[in-house]
TrEMBL record:
Keywords of this entry: Membrane, Phosphate transport, Transmembrane, Transmembrane helix, Transport
This protein's record includes keyword Transport: yes
Transmembrane segments: 6-29, 41-63, 83-102, 114-132, 152-178, 190-216, 236-255, 262-280, 319-339, 419-439, 445-463, 475-500, 506-524
Membrane-protein topology: Multi-pass membrane protein
Pfam families (UniProt xref): PHO4 (PF01384)
Superkingdom assignment: Bacteria
Protein's recorded name: Phosphate transporter
Main location: membrane
tRNA-binding keyword on record: no
Family: Belongs to the inorganic phosphate transporter (PiT) (TC 2.A.20) family.
Length: 766
């Protein structure tokens, strides 16, 4: 039995490293989104600053480890073996839960997850003990630290509302004073803003950094015989006031004489501060449980008592965490920050939801988001009517965004929001977390930073008529995920604890193996999605500003579309021939994916036109027509894939041998034409297009002949209405598909050979 606990300790150590990785991947959004979204400083500089913040925060986090030992449950009520089972259940649940959210690219709270996992496992163990002693359910309150659990729940609700509201108010006032032309304001304005922001962040670093260390609890004569922590908490106004004067003066000097952009400095300091706070506050969420288990194991070994009889009241005592362990944990976190692709996907979700510009909206609107947007519009109308028109015009002037200029930057290089909003995000998040810490209020750094970013987005009018329902739906999804985290963490850890408690070593082995399999599966799935996004056949937005560049870039897209068209059409015919429902289902998804990619290109037309040179505006007509033809191709493929899958999936009669043979003949001829066309576009050999166009009539005649054959067949021998409907649908949609391809070729042929009259080009159908 002793060996089991030693093996559990090793497993917990491994799980701690894994938890650090998935935890940092999730929480990186807390301190990276403002700096990355504003593009104020280079990505490499952001990562270096954040790395130093994490390293410093990890070393300062020793005083934060108590929550895992005694914050949620009363350790004296449990024996050593029970405590170890609780810790194992918590760590297994935590890794799987956080990795699940990372794979979805959704930020969640590691604080809430660990708290509710501890609570769920402790409640489950308490019920097992109560059941064994024939006790009453009400006895659970003796085992659980009820006050702490209630504080956490109210902390969730409070932090969501307060962070969003304060963020919106501060951003509105900041924008009203600074406008979007903040860099042209007098030096003293930037200096005052810098003084306010930097002084609040300095206090934040002191409270969350030094205030969390072990030596902060020691008394020092230099500060009146009180502890550093007490000094920081009691001298709030004096410290902030002195900081404000120092930083305002320093900001003025930097801006006036060194030509320093104070907003970039604020963003850099804020990123460091929040990274430090994250490591100092949330490190306990990842290694607090394994360290508590290790300290429990040492105490049990020294006691010589049976594991089932050794009370864990010792965990109620304060035990410092070895600095070496904190250093190792900090290094793991820093490495994860640099190399985790999941961290980047979680950050992207937060940035997209707060972006000032249009993005590819990830969330679909729902009735709740539509209702909230309508309510907001109604309230806005009422307020607007209540404010004098002259005052409203002055306010609107401050919120007027500069005209988008893409002469030097591509669309993907534009910042999601400007430096004022990034600075406000960091400043407000720091202030709220500092205040909560000084008043010993439970708070989730994830909730605060995310909701502040959403509040500032709303106040900055980033959620316009074209994006509001999507952004609100996204925020609701994320918030729903937060509360889902608490519920899932509580239930899952309770179930896993029960399995471990009754199954002992065998259950542990199975659960650990299952956890490894799930992590590996999620990792493979995430990498697969990432590779799909980078696939060589994926479509790229046109970024060129001249007609020649547009022709070249569009040619590459057309080549990729035709390659995928060829594959999708052939797979459809093969799937019908073999009645392979899985192939047809997969093929249908490929058609939908192609259609979505082309829709994304169409959504980009606004920026494409903005990017054109004055003497190349004619390229817009060329590009828009090209996208129209590509849309027609994708819609035809999507329809062919859908009706084919539906036919086989509903177990209708198989197409007859002659029908399959005729479809295969069309497929082979179509493949020949598409291959020639693809080669022409891949090699930029547009003179070959004439050769392909010369085969147009032959293919159309082939399809027409098949239609006539099927008409005759239907009148004499065909007995299945479903087969007839499917066959005619395939032939007619194939004809539409080829019409779109030929129209596309005709457009390029006309552009290459000016002797061909443009009037021969047909307009896109859709």
């Amino acid at each position: 039995m002793d060996n089991i606990f030693f093996l559990m300790l090793i497993a917990l150590a491994v799980l701690a490293i894994a938890d650090l990785v998935v935890g940092v991947s999730n929480d990186a959004v807390n301190f990276l989104n403002s700096a990355i979204g504003s593009k104020a400083i280079s990505f490499k500089t952001i990562m270096i600053v954040a790395s130093f913040g994490i390293a410093a925060g990890a070393l300062f986090s020793s005083g934060m480890m108590e929550v895992a030992r005694k914050g949620i449950f009363n350790p004296g009520e449990f024996y050593f073996d029970e405590i170890m089972f609780i810790f194992m259940a918590v760590m297994i649940t935590d890794i799987l839960l956080l990795d699940f959210f990372n794979t979805l690219g959704m930020p969640t709270s590691t604080t809430v997850s660990i708290v509710f996992e501890l609570l769920g496992a402790a409640v489950a163990m308490s019920l097992i003990k109560i059941g064994a002693d024939n006790g009453s359910f009400i006895d659970v309150i003796n085992y659980i630290n009820n006050d702490k659990a209630i504080q956490i729940i109210f902390g969730i609700l409070l932090s969501v509302v307060v962070a969003f509201t304060i963020g919106a108010m501060v951003q509105w006032v900041s924008r009203l004073l600074l406008s979007y032309n903040f860099e042209k304001k007098p030096t003293w304005v930037g200096a005052l803003f810098g003084g306010f922001a930097l002084s609040s962040m300095t206090y934040f670093i002191l409270i969350k950094g030094i205030g969390g260390t072990a030596f902060a609890g020691e008394s020092y004569d230099l500060i009146g015989g009180i502890t550093i922590k007490e000094f920081l908490e009691t001298q709030l106004f004096a410290l902030v006031g002195a900081n404000f004067l120092v930083w305002s003066t320093f900001s003025f000097i930097l801006m006036k004489f060194a030509n320093v952009n104070i907003y970039k400095l604020i963003i850099g300091v804020g990123t460091f501060a929040l990274a430090l706070a994250f490591a100092g506050n949330d490190l306990v969420n990842f290694i607090g449980v394994p360290i508590a288990a290790w300290q429990s194991y040492e105490a049990w070994l020294a006691s010589g008592v049976e594991a089932s009889e050794f009370s864990m009241g010792i965990l109620a005592n304060k035990v410092p965490t070895p600095t070496l362990l904190l250093f190792i944990a900090g290094m793991v976190m820093v490495l994860t920050l640099w190399f985790s692709s999941k961290a980047k996907s979680v950050v992207k979700t937060s940035i997209d939801l707060s972006s000032q510009e249009d993005t590819k909206e990830r969330f679909q609107p729902n009735f709740l988001s539509r209702g909230l947007v309508r309510l907001a519009i109604s309230l806005s109308t009422v307020l607007t009517n209540a404010i004098p028109r002259s005052l409203q015009e002055k306010i609107d002037k401050q919120f007027n965004k500069p005209v988008i200029s893409l002469s030097k930057k591509k669309v993907h290089e534009l910042p999601a929001f400007d430096m004022v909003r990034a600075a406000v995000n960091l400043m407000v998040a720091g202030i709220l977390i500092s205040i909560a810490t000084s008043y010993k209020l439970p708070l989730s750094t994830t909730y605060v930073t995310f909701m502040v970013a959403m509040g500032t987005s709303l106040a900055d009018r980033a959620w316009g008529a074209e994006s509001a329902v999507y952004r609100v739906a996204g925020v609701l999804n994320v918030i729903g995920g937060w509360f889902g985290t608490a519920i899932i963490a509580f239930i899952a850890s309770g179930i896993i604890l029960t399995l471990i408690s009754f199954g002992k070593g065998a259950a542990l082995a199975v659960l650990l193996f299952a956890a490894i399999l799930l992590l590996a599966r999620n990792y493979i799935s995430h990498n697969k999605k990432a590779k799909e996004l980078k696939a060589e056949d994926s479509l790229n937005r046109a970024e060129s500003s001249s007609i020649q560049g547009v022709i070249f870039e569009s040619a590459m897209n057309i080549s990729n579309v035709l390659k995928r068209t060829n594959k999708i059409y052939t797979n459809t015919i093969n799937g019908l021939a073999k009645q392979d429902v899985n192939l047809l289902k997969k093929n249908k998804k490929q058609g939908e994916k192609l259609s979505n990619e082309i829709d994304d290109l169409r959504d980009h037309i606004f920026y494409f036109i903005k990017n054109l040179d004055e003497n190349s505006v004619g390229a817009s007509n060329f590009y828009i027509n090209t996208l129209g033809y590509l849309t027609d191709i994708a819609q035809s493929l999507e329809y062919i894939g859908k009706v084919s899958h539906k036919h086989v999936n509903n177990n209708h009669k198989k197409l007859k041998y002659n029908q399959i043979k005729e479809l295969k003949q069309i497929d082979l001829k179509l493949e020949e034409i598409l291959n020639q066309t693809q080669d022409a576009f891949s090699n930029q050999s547009f003179e070959q297009i004439g050769n392909v166009l010369s085969q147009k009539q032959e293919l159309f005649q082939m399809v027409s002949d098949k239609i006539q054959t099927q008409v005759a067949r239907t009148r004499t021998e065909e007995s299945s209405p479903k087969n007839t409907t499917l066959y005619f649908s395939l032939l007619l949609e194939t004809k539409d598909l080829m019409t779109s391809v030929m129209n596309l070729l005709q457009q390029y042929h006309n552009e290459h050979d000016s002797s061909v009259a443009p009037a021969t080009i047909e307009s896109p159908k859709k």
